[in-house]
Amino acid sequence: MSDKIRFYSANEAYGEFSNFALYPVKVRGRMWPTSEHFFQSMKFKDENDLEQVRKAKSPMEAARIGRNRKRKLRRDWEGIKISVMKEAVLANFTQHDHLAELLISTGDAELIEHTPRDSYWGDGGNGRGKNMLGKILMEVIKSHPIPTNKPN
């Protein structure tokens, strides 16, 4: 992989790869305003907490609620958070054709969530982070057939 595509802010180049990008998704029988709403809400088993996150006015508010440690996280969260993120990403890129086309257009480029604010999902701003979101996006390209409605 020689090309690197860095993304972070939803209103900048490749910002569509951000979970804060304003694309609603239907997952587990419910509509979520963004994939961030879905991801953050899955941290909780309590239906009231889950619904409060789902109904948050913005992805930033959903993230703030989801990061509030006064709320009880589900016990298995650390063990399932990657699979929940994969579910969120897959929903985004299978439910919005133009997102799928954008993701496919990146080819073999390395996708990097470039942010000093997160060294787990992102690169930590210095390239030393785990970049798990970028890795999941690249995995989705390779291992999941993403349907597009292009005519043959």
| Total separate domains | 1
Query: Superfamily at the CATH H level?
Result: YbiA-like
Secondary structure tally, helices: 6
- Outline type: globular
For the biggest β-sheet, the strand order reads 1-4
- Secondary-structure class: mainly alpha
The separation of the N and C termini measures 29 Å
Mean pLDDT: 93
Q: Round the Cα radius of gyration to an integer and report it.
A: 15 Å
Helix content: 40-55%
Fold-level CATH name: Tetracycline Repressor, domain 2
Overall number of strands: 4
Indicate the CATH class. Answer: Mainly Alpha
- Label the CATH architecture: Orthogonal Bundle
Which percent range describes the beta-strand content? 5-15%
Reported for the largest beta sheet, the result is: 2 strands, parallel
Stretches where pLDDT is under 50 for at least 5 consecutive residues are none
Order of helices and strands: EEEHHHHHEH
